[in-house]
Structure formats: C-alpha cells, structure tokens
From TrEMBL:
Gene3D superfamilies: Histidine kinase-like ATPase, C-terminal domain, PAS domain. This is histidine kinase. InterPro entries: BphY/WalK/GraS-like, HATPase_C_sf, HATPase_dom, His_kinase_dom, PAS, PAS-like_dom_sf, Sig_transdc_His_kin-like_C. Residues 229-450 form the Histidine kinase domain. Residues 110-149 form the PAS domain. It is found in: Membrane. It holds the Pfam family HATPase_c.
Length: 450
C-alpha cells in the first residue's frame, strides 16, 4: 500500500512538472515572457519538492537499515503524519523492525541456551581462526588447562611448549593424544579437530577430552562390578558352611566344667555330623578352586607370539569341536579371506579364546535343529585383522551385555564365569580387543580385532 501511494505521489509530481514545462514553452512562443517565467519558476519549485520527497524517503530507509546493521531496534518512525504515503511507509518500517527484533531476541535466547550447554559439558571446546585467535573457549577447557582467558594460541606456550606445537600443527580431521603434566595432576588429553565455515571465515573447531577422568570412572565401575560378583560367589559358598556349622554345634553341649556330654549324642546326630563335615569339605574345596581360578586370571603370562596360519588353526578347532559335540546337530563353518592369511599371535592363548567362544556358542544353540556356528578371519576396512565367531542362538540379554566380561559373572549353571574375562585379558595382552553384538534369536557375534 505504501509503495502504491509513493508511486502515485511521484506520478502527480512528474505530471505537474511536465505541464509546467509545456506551459512555459507555450507562453514563450507567444512571447508572454513573464508568464513563461512564472511557469519556469514553478518547474524549479516542483523539481525541488520532488527531490526532497525522494531524499526524505531514502533517508528513512537508509536510517532503517543502518539501525538493523547496528542491532539498534529502538528506532521508531512517526505514524501520525499528514501525508498518507509517509504514514503507511512508516507503519510498514515499524512492523518490519518489530519482526526483526523478535527474530533477534529468539536467536539470542537460543544462543544463550547453547552456550549454557557448552558450559556444562565435560568436554573442552574452542574455535580458532586462521590467525590463531581463539574466538570461543568453554569454561571446562580453561579449567582443564588451568588458564583463563584463552584468547590466542600463543598463550599455550605459557602452559606447555610441546602442547602449543601440537595444537599449532593440528590440521582438519586430525586426532592427537597428549599427556599434560602440571603441579596438580596428570591429564591424558585427546584432541580432535573439525573444520567449519562461519560467515565466510574458515575456522577450526577443536574438542579436548580428558581421557584420564573417563578411564578412572570406567575403572571404578569395573571394580564395583567385580566386587559385587566376588561377594556374591563367596557368600554363596560360605553361607552353607556357616549354617551347617551352627546346626552341628548344637549337638555338642558341654557341662559347667567344660566337659563334652557324650552320652547326649545319638547315632543320627553322629551321621549328620559326618555328612555336615563332608559338605563343609566340598564347599571349602569349591572356594579354593574359585580362588585358584582368580589367581590364574591374574598370573596370565605374556603372549609368546609367532606368525600363525589362521586357516590351519581354525580347521583344527573345527575338528576338535566336532569330536566333543558329535551328537549335536550343528553346522560349523570356517571362512578365511584371503586363504593364506597369517596372524602374529600366541597360538595357544588365541586357541584357548576361540575354544571358549566356540563352546559357548555350541551350548547356546543346544536343542536347535538349525544350529549354526561360523568362524571367519579376514581384514577389515581399516586394515586390521580380525576373527569373528557367530552363532544363531537365543543371544545375550541387553542388561547382561555390560556384565559378561566381568570376572566370575556367569549365567550358566556350574559355570565359573572366568572364560570371557580371561579371553578379554588375552586380547588385551595382544594389543587387541574383543567386542560382542547380539540380536536375540537371530545372531550373536564376538569379534576379536588385532
């Protein structure tokens, strides 16, 4: 509406100037010079008013955009003016100004929200421009480095010269580790850099994680779970001993002089005593075996590595498993890609891991008509060699996934709970890892990565 009135005003003024020019020319031809002069003066006034009108409108729009650029939303244009076109233009500019102000306020609220999140997370974050200026760093990073405020990379020289060299040479998509030692503590830092582009500027987003803290938390959690399992196993063994001892002690009463009253004993009590002592002996032996298995877990020797043809090892494992389980309907597959693949391992230790995983898989598919066990050795996309043990049994419950590698945790009757934890320890000594993935009643896969 404002633009239509503006054009209407422009057309009227141009028409008046045109008419004045024609009138001036007409009266000059008639040699009525004084009348032509009046029209000529009128042309000057009309031109002046046209230019003023356009400049007034342009100045308003220019002020409006200057205010927006400077984020000044206090600028208001008067809407109570006599000229209708100016009134509508001012009203439109005020509405646009209010809309932009509302959007700006929402953006500020969102920005404060994200900044608050960055302040609370336990990961250091900073953005660096091409000249080394640190445009943003969250409080956790400043606390981790014990230095604030962080404004430029050169400040890292005051923290640690080698740390400065590491960050200064950190490129896009690079990951680096560094142990920062100060008078308070040691921190194992993990740096990761990602390039970003903001307002046409190339920036580097660097995240810093304190691995020492993460490892401490995981170690504490592991100890808690281990102690819980140890307590459970020991209590299961000791409780019957305590109960039987208490029951037997009631058979043997002494008089005031401390002499045992043998005449009070009958044949049934003597038989129960023998049985009770036998149970105590068995429970004691079980507890000794439990402690011995714990010692064997802790005293695992370092691997004696050599180059091993993995296909030959897996074929021997296949024969062994078939001999032990010839009565079960089981499809046992061995896949090696490439066939001449060799692993630098302790053959006896890795064979023990594979035997343990294979036995677990065979037990899980027991009773299934379509039981299947597949062992595959190959090289993954990252160039690392791996062995995969997969079965199609009922799988592992989600709540047990974090417990199965804890020493002495078991879901099987008569199981020691040492097999998987021992396998994990062997893989750790080989510098590798063991991971599990399970989809109930479809597949369970253990992956040994070297």
């Amino acid at each position: 509406m404002a633009s239509r009135n503006f054009y209407f005003q422009m057309i009227i003024r141009v028409v008046l100037i045109t008419l004045a020019a024609l009138g001036s020319a007409y009266f000059v031809i008639l040699e009525w010079f004084w009348v032509g002069g009046v029209f000529l003066i009128s042309i000057g006034f009309q031109t002046y008013f046209l230019i003023s009108y356009i400049n007034k409108t342009n100045r308003k729009i220019a002020y409006f955009f200057d205010a927006i650029r400077n984020e000044d939303f206090t600028l208001r244009f008067p809407e109570k003016v006599s000229i209708q076109s100016f009134k509508e233009l001012n009203s439109s500019l005020n509405r646009v100004n209010q809309l932009i102000q509302d959007v700006q306020l929402k953006l500020q609220v969102r920005e404060r929200y994200y900044q608050e999140i960055l302040k609370q997370i336990d990961i250091g974050i900073m953005t660096i421009d091409e000249k080394g200026h640190i445009l943003y760093s969250n409080p956790f990073l400043e606390k981790l480095l014990n230095f604030r405020p962080l404004l430029h990379l050169k400040q890292f020289r005051q923290i640690d010269l080698k740390l400065y060299e590491l960050i200064d040479n950190l490129g896009p998509f690079e990951q680096k580790y560094y142990q920062l030692v100060n008078e308070r503590e040691k921190n194992q830092l993990f740096f990761k850099a990602v390039p970003i582009n903001m307002e046409g500027k190339a920036l580097l987003l660097v995240t810093v994680q304190d691995l020492h803290k993460e490892l401490d938390e995981k170690e504490t959690d592991s100890w808690v779970r281990l102690i819980r399992v140890l307590t459970h196993e020991i209590m299961n063994t000791i409780t019957p001993i305590t109960s039987i001892s208490e029951s037997l002690s009631k058979y043997y009463k002494v008089d005031e002089g401390g002499e045992l009253k043998w005449e009070n004993l009958n044949e049934d009590q003597i038989k129960n005593t023998v049985k009770g002592l036998n149970v105590i002996k068995i429970q004691g032996e079980d507890l000794m075996d439990f402690v011995q298995s714990y010692r064997s877990f802790l005293d695992l020797p370092n691997p004696d590595k050599s180059l091993v043809n993995i296909k030959a090892l897996l074929e021997r494992l296949k024969v062994l498993m078939r001999m032990e389980n010839n009565s079960r309907k089981l499809e046992f597959n061995v896949l090696v890609e490439p066939e001449d693949l060799e692993f630098y391992i302790d053959e006896k230790q890795i064979a023990q891991v594979l035997i343990n995983l294979s036995k677990n898989a065979i037990q899980s598919v027991e009773g299934q008509n379509n039981g299947e066990l597949t062992i595959k050795a190959s090289i993954n996309a990252q160039g690392r060699k791996y062995i995969e043990v997969k079965d199609n049994g009922p799988g592992i419950l989600a709540e047990q996934m974090d417990e199965i590698f804890v020493p002495f945790f078991t879901t099987k009757n008569g199981g020691t709970g040492i097999g998987l934890s021992l396998s994990k320890q062997i893989m750790h000594l080989h510098g590798g890892s063991i991971r599990v993935h399970s989809i109930p009643f479809k597949e369970t896969t253990f992956v040994l990565t070297f």
